[in-house]
Fold this sequence. Notes:
Elements: H1 2-6, H2 27-30, H3 34-37, H4 41-61, H5 67-86, H6 99-120, H7 122-128, H8 139-151, H9 153-177, H10 184-221
Amino acid sequence: MMANLFSIFDPVASFNLPLNWLASFIGLTLLPWTFWVQSNRYSKLFNLVFNQLHTEFKTLVGPVASKGHTMLFISLFLLIVFNNFLGLAPYVFTATSHLAMTLSLALPLWLAFMIYGWFNHSQHMLAHLVPLGTPGALMPFMVLIETTSNVIRPGTLAVRLAANMIAGHLLLVLLGNQGPSMSSSILSFLLITQILLLTLESAVAVIQSYVFAVLATLYSSEVA
């Protein structure tokens, strides 16, 4: 039962190529060509979202941040939110429910931040290991705790996103599997419940994407 339940996350295709993972970039094919060549409602909506995210990420990074600086995290947010919404569609592979996807996003960012910070701001990175006002006797323990907390950051980013996507999809599948065994009166209530749950999952898709991007932005600000 458990194997069948989690099999909905298996990347299975009728070809030998991992075509399921290509669904992560299918959004580029859905955009109309007019989006790229002239101003219309699609480009205006994108610019509105872009400017709003730039304003919020710039506050986290600092006043020296430019649109080029925050573009990395805006692109990260858009990629994750698109894949989260794509996974809510029936029979569509959910890439962000796999650690292979989420860890591939979190680990390179974390490594880049650490390499940049230790090579360019070594004293600043060492100062982060011992919070201000720490007693001398506790300093070795604080260094160990802060180092451990820093090392597990990419793992917590990846697991948080994947676990939230898995939990919502499993709940939807569990409710959907109960439909054939229910009476028509209860079936209508189940349908309303699934619609409400799908609405909640849509909000979770946006929130988790935003949390991932914000935490990545905060990690980058610590090494500046």
